Amino acid sequence: MARGGRGAGRDADPARRPAGPAGIDPSRRPGDRHVPVGRPGVHRGEPARCSRHRRTAGGAGRRPGLAGRAGFSGGAHSVTTAAAALGEERARDLDATDPLARYRARFLLPTGDDGRPKIYLAGQSLGAQPVAARAEVEADLDAWARLGVDGWFAGDRTWIDADGAVRESTASIVGARPGEVATLNTLTVNLHLLFASFFRPAGARTAVLIDAPTFPSDRYAVESQLRLHGLDPERDLITVRPRDGEALLRTEDLEGAIREHRDRLAVALLAGVNYATGQAHEIERLTAAVHDAGAVALWDLAHAAGNVPLALHDAGVDAAAWCTYKYLNGGPGAIAQLFVHERHTADASTLRLTGWWGNEPATRFRMAESFEPGIGADGWRISTPPILSLAPIRASLAIFEEVGMDALRAKSVLLTAYLESLLVALVPDVEILTPREPTARGAQLSLRMADAPRRLAALEAAGVVADFREPDIIRMAPVPLYNTFHEIWRAARVLADTAL
């Protein structure tokens, strides 16, 4: 699964590391056999590690709740298993002792007609706007007005290294070395750039492996790359799907497919966190399996970056790409980022598509005919960076740098587990597709329910913002930087009122 924190060197396998401070086990139910944090549990009657929550009224005769406590950033929380855990007072108590509560004021949340903030649970689609984003954009607009072209080299904050200014904070979020990350383009464009470098079909090795359900843009990109090389997606695209009757992919099935096709596999492109189910994959384990097969491991981290702990360098990931407009709050259509492991950036034989911005900065303006690649992932940059698009992400990453991924993750685990426990108790017809283990998911819960479009409309009418994915999935993602426990309680009550 995914991971993160302040810099490389942390465990890259969230499925095998605590989801928060020692002792937190938000997934444990009253009467459950204890499963240590970091080891997947098993749903009764369902396969290990691939369980999904099928909710029926009454369950096993107990009201599910949360157990454990979190001292994230020095605070102390406890979510009890008693009926009181379902009440409004408990939600307010949790908010009162939340050490990250003050960061909500650093974001502008959508408002209703009455001017009051909506309950915004759609950070998995588009993050909220940092308050400081407007000032960051206006500062660059002012520099443009005052300095014109001189803004590249003059003023309080020159543009010439605007994309490099977020390098350190980005590296800390994804567990990379600073030279392994770059900010450029958009996500699918960056996937194409990585395929140009790492998909080098030769001999029998012509196949690309992906996981399902796959975000359509990833599949379109892979199919087009295969066709560009004169290959046939029907033959050379390997899609690993969940077993019949299961919503989630088993890690052992992915590993089995990688082994089965080891002699023809060139690249595996996998999602760190699945966009539809919210399942987080074991990045280090699967990367090792791909490498054992002699192939290249690429990762789409659109739903992982800023959401779950990552350690891309230590996991040995070859390369990865992600957007910044979801959990990283960079704004609609914001500039994207990529990671290329230093073993590839230090190799002069690593091919890439090139442009002048990827040239070594010291010689870029000599306008030489020969390309001199920049150091590290910067050598994958092609065009002049969009200065105004970089401004909001600066504002957001400053908050991440201040808070740290460890504290964010600890609160995220509790928020999502709290939402889960309320839904289990209050909305018996909801099927939660997302894994129950905190180490196997991020913030998002994917909810399957009858008449989902109608119920989404009812949520919206009540001021709750979620989103819908065909055919019957509502996605909710409590974001620790700006969502509150009381909002989660209110959203669960609203959804309960929509039940047929």
SSE layout and pairings?
Elements: E1 53-54, E2 69-70, E3 77-78, H1 88-96, E4 107-108, E5 119-120, E6 129-130, H2 131-147, H3 167-174, E7 181-183, H4 187-198, E8 207-211, H5 216-228, H6 233-236, E9 237-240, H7 251-260, E10 265-271, H8 283-292, E11 296-300, H9 312-315, E12 319-322, E13 337-340, H10 342-345, H11 361-364, H12 387-403, H13 405-426, E14 431-432, E15 445-448, H14 452-461, E16 464-465, E17 467-469, E18 473-476, H15 485-497
Parallel strand pairs: 5-16, 8-9, 8-10, 10-11, 11-12
Antiparallel strand pairs: 1-14, 2-3, 4-6, 7-13, 12-13, 14-15, 15-18, 17-18
Helix pairs in contact: 1-15, 2-12, 3-12, 4-5, 7-8, 13-15
Give a written overview of the molecule:
This protein is α/β, with parallel strands linked by helices. It has two domains: 14-129 and 405-497, Aspartate Aminotransferase, domain 1, CATH 3.90.1150.10; 138-401, Type I PLP-dependent aspartate aminotransferase-like (Major domain) (Aspartate Aminotransferase, domain 2), CATH 3.40.640. It has 15 helices and 18 strands. The protein has helices at 88-96, 131-147, 167-174, 187-198, 216-228, 233-236, 251-260, 283-292, 312-315, 342-345, 361-364, 387-403, 405-426, 452-461, 485-497; strands spanning 53-54, 69-70, 77-78, 107-108, 119-120, 129-130, 181-183, 207-211, 237-240, 265-271, 296-300, 319-322, 337-340, 431-432, 445-448, 464-465, 467-469, 473-476. A seven-stranded mixed sheet has the order 7-13-12-11-10-8-9, with helices on both faces. The chain has a five-stranded antiparallel sheet with strand order 1-14-15-18-17, with helices on one face. Helix 1 (88-96) packs antiparallel against helix 15 (485-497), helix 4 (187-198) runs parallel beside helix 5 (216-228) and helix 7 runs parallel beside helix 8. The two termini are 35 Å apart.
